[in-house]
Amino acid sequence: MEIGFKSTFLQEILTNISTGDVQVEMSDPTRAGLLLPADSGDDSEDMLMLLMPMMINA
Q1: What's the predicted TM-score (pTM) here?
Q2: Is the pLDDT of residue 39 over 60?
């Protein structure tokens, strides 16, 4: 699978996730990627970020 994300949006998401490890889930190049903190130390806060892919010129 080949998928691309706009770097400024990806950087914004990564700076707002408090953990150093991030889990990325992708199912299809045309669907949004899910970015989740790999280890959330705070159980009172759930975080889920969505990022839509960009078209890659082949």
Answers
A1: 0.73
A2: yes
